[in-house]
Amino acid sequence: MKITWLGTASVLAEICGERILFDPFVQLVGGENPNCIEDFWGNESICITHGHLDHMLEVSEFLEEDSPCEATVYCGSVAAKTLGRIAEETGRVVQVGPGTVFRIGDVKIRVWEGKHARPGIGQAAKRLFSLRTVHYLRNAVSLAWLHRFFPEGGQTYLYELRAEGKTVLVMGSLGLMDGVCYPEGADLLILPYQGSKNLEKEALRVVERLRPKRILLDHFDDAFPPISQTVDTHRFKKRMDEKFPGISVVKPLYGKPVEV
Predict the structure, then answer these.
(1) pLDDT tens-digit profile of 183-196?
(2) What does the DSSP 8-state code read for residue 114?
(3) What are the percentages of helix, strand and coil residues in the chain, rounded to 5?
(4) FRET label pair with 152: which of 24, 145, 172, 253, CA 20 to 30 Å apart?
(5) If pLDDT is split at 50, 70 and 90, which confidence band does 121 have?
(6) In whole angstroms, what is the distance from residue 106 CA to residue 111 CA?
(7) The pTM is what?
(8) In which element (H, E) is residue 254 found?
(9) Greater confidence, 42 or 212?
C-alpha cells in the first residue's frame, strides 16, 4: 500500500492494484508545488471530501466526453450538484454520504461525517489585507469569484479505506463531529494541517480521538496564494512527541510515495 501526496489535499492511494485519487487540485500561480491536470490522469477512481474549489475545481475535466481518463467520482450531494452545473457528463458521478460503504476492487471504503475547519476572521483579514494580495491580485479576484460556485454546504467527509489488513483514514478538513464514534487505531491518518484558527490545538484534539498509529500531513503548503500560506509544522511535531510519543508524524515530499 502506497500513499503519495500531490500538493494541497490531493492524495493518491495505491492499494491492491487500484489507484484512488482524493481531492485533485491544480495549484494557482505562485503555488508552492506547481502542477498541472496531466499529473492526475491515469486514476479511474476519485473521492471528493467536500465541495470547496481547492478540493474539486479540476474534477469536471475528468468528466468531459473527450477526457483521456474516464474516472468515476464519489462525492456528497452538494459536490454532485456543483458538478452537475459545470461538468459535461455526470453519469460517472456516484453520490455517497455518512454510512455509505462501497468497494473499489478489493478496497472497502466507508464514508464518515466530518466537519470543516473554521479559520478565524482576524486570520482571514490579515491575509487579505496584505502585500501578498497585491502581488497575487489576479489569484485573489479569481478565488473571490469562484468561491461562491463551490460551496461546502455542511458536507465534509472522512473516508475510511480497508485493504491488505490495514486501515487508512483520509480527512478532508481539520474537524470531527461531536458524538460520532470514529474508528480508532488506523495504520495511517491523513491529516490536513491548515484552515483552523487554533491549528495545533485542533490537530491534537483529532489525534486524541482517533489514536492512529501514524500520521501523514497534507494541505500544509501554499497552494493558492494569497489565501493559503506555508504552515510551519515543527511545533506540532514537537507537541506530538511530547503528548503522543508512540505516534510518528510524516511531512511528505511532493510526489514521493510513503509505504503503509
Answers:
(1) 999 999 999 999 88
(2) B
(3) 25, 25, 50
(4) 253
(5) low
(6) 16
(7) 0.95
(8) none
(9) 212
Q: Are 73 and 62 in contact (CB under 8 A)?
A: yes
SS3 for 58?
coil
CA distances in angstroms from 119 to 57, 82, 116, 170, 196, listed in the order given: 21, 23, 10, 20, 4
Q: Name residue 13's beta-bridge partners.
A: 3, 20
Residue with cell 485542533: 202
Sheet bearing 72-75, strands edge to edge? 93-95, 72-75, 45-47, 18-22, 11-15, 2-5, 258-259
CA atoms of 235 and 254, how far apart (whole Å): 21
Residue in 170, 224, 190, 192 with CA at minimum distance from that of residue 35: 224
- For residue 192, cis peptide bond before it (omega within 30 degrees of 0): no
**Distance separating alpha carbons of residues 22 and 45, to the nearest angstrom:** 9
Distance CA 20, CA 170 (A): 11
